[in-house]
Predict the 3D structure of the following.
Amino acid sequence: MSMALRPRWTRSRRALAATAGLAAALAVGGVVTASPASADTNCELGYHCVFYLGYDSARHLYYNSDPNFTNDQFDNVRYGTSGQNQYVNDNIYSASNHTSTSYYSRYYLNINYTGGMLFCVKPGSEIEDLAAAVPSSSLSLTTSNPGGCY
Ligand SMILES: [Ca+2]
């Protein structure tokens, strides 16, 4: 009688262990989601990347705010050469934020952060093929959430 019950108890315990494992896996996933700064993006950790076209085109990496895109080129070709050495100013089509802290990327129409913010990207987020990004000419990093960011 006890021999017949034992396998059931063992299976039940294994099921419990599997459930605990699943819960642990979900908890890990939750931590990743709650920490967008560590999310995997098409940009290196600590940088704010802009792309000539999609994520598979040439990019330029910004580490800090930049008041003027006219002297910057899509000089990084880790993911693709399309648009290589084209100027960044009025030419961005995609953007990725891989801040190592919690900076929002804010893109402005004109140089020196003027002319109005065209769009922004949250920490750990990115946006591909965004027509509204094209005319941007400067990038400001801020820890305050401007709202409405990708
Ligand atoms: Ca510049």
Residues 66, 68-69, 71-72 surround calcium ion (CB under 6 Å).
